[in-house]
Amino acid sequence: xxxxxxxxxxxxxxxSNAKTVDLRAGKHFRFDLDALNTFCLEDLPSRLVDLxxxxxxxxxxxxxxxxxxxxxxxxxxxxxxxxxxxxxAGFWNNSELRDAIHDAVDLLSGDFWDxxxxxxxxxxxxxxxxxxxxxxxxxxxxxxxxxxxxxxxGLAARMxxxxxxxxxxxxxxxxxxxxxxxxxxxxxxxTRFNVRVDSLIVKVAIMWSSKLxxxxxxxxxxxxxxxxxxxxAVAAIMHGQQVVEMFESGIxxxxxxxMAGMVGAKTTKSAHPKFLRLMSRLASLVADDDVEFCxxxxxxxxxxxxxxxxxxxxxxxxxxxxxxxxxxxxxxxxKQCGVCPACIFRRQAMASAGINEPEDVYEHDFLGSPQxxxxxxxxxxxxxxxxxxxxxxxxxxxTGKQLPPSxxxxxxxxxxxxxxxxxxxxxELLARYRDEWMAIASERREKGYSWARxxxxxxxKMEGVAHAxx
Length: 470
What we know:
Blueprint: E1 9-14, E2 21-24, E3 29-31, H1 33-40, H2 46-64, E4 79-86, H3 89-92, H4 95-109, E5 112-119, E6 141-144, H5 149-161, E7 167-173, H6 178-193, E8 200-206, H7 224-238, E9 243-246, H8 250-254, H9 273-287, E10 292-294, H10 302-311, H11 315-320, H12 341-353, H13 370-374, H14 382-393, H15 405-413, H16 423-446
Parallel strand pairs: 4-5, 6-7, 6-9, 7-8, 9-10
Antiparallel strand pairs: 1-2, 1-4, 3-8
Helix pairs in contact: 2-7, 4-9, 5-6, 5-10, 7-9, 10-12, 12-16
């Protein structure tokens, strides 16, 4: 058992006939609230403690409730009930707050969540208060930092744009190597730009036991983004800031479906503009003041964002970042698979940015030598083919023209565009992204890469891939 200074209880069930499971923070799972108290130099106010209790509880339950795939590509939605012990149930049972939580979590996971709040009967009080800016008049840049390529490139770019500005990067540590990776990245950036970096890295963990069977763990973990964003909101509120930045490219935020059926839990919405608007609404209600989550690089491709690292001599930072959805792989092979959507997206961006990666980074490297790329088994190329088909469908996208109907429907139906962003901005972004891919494919085609010939076709017909645009 891990000691947690302020433990609390939750219970959950899934489905109408499911048994209720009772859990205790500190015994069955841990979210390190004490790290925040230490970081902020005093205990958090009750409502911020409650926000993190709620967010960590939803994250834990999301991992413990297994989806039950049926026939077809789409994983079914779950119905999940959660009851959380909070310090101020009256505050959280306000219908506006409940709706804000449900809207954000339902969007992320594609499920139906019913979150209830009950009074925690523990005999202790919270004396914490919202702090004024403790950075001696210098407003810190509060941002979410995952250790991924976009996080590193975006933070470097913002440091260049804001010389001398203190940085407060927030990380939820949930993987064995993640904390070390993030600390090394932040140390490098702080030294390189001579900037004060006060990182907040908080661990979340499930204590697996006979009661909590890891073999039944749900791998999608879509609600981790809700916990991540909630922690960012708390850090901003405690330091008197009204903006939390998230460093994701515009292409990543739009996240066009690669294949038919990649909806709901099959696709991540961690940087989805609608999710960030919903989190802004929730954080503002909690703070009783305006708090906004923003994407400062919504108008850039991943390649354009990463190029800033090369231009500032930070290629090694890019190379050391991790993107693979299977990271960290639990074997002695290279840490990144090279053929999952995240690896392909990363590899394309690195090539577009002109950053050469070492030969041992990927298990399968479609941009390695022609011989190596052509030896990749066909079954491993499914996602690469889907990317190429998506690029082919973008062949006629250009300034002044309309998006293909399927892409336009995606933008409208998922509420990606806010009032401040026109469709024209997205058209220009997608056209530049397409041109990056076309340039890479053209160069590789001349060198004998088999996959690159697929983009020479006049029609986007690729065997074995059912594309979302079809």
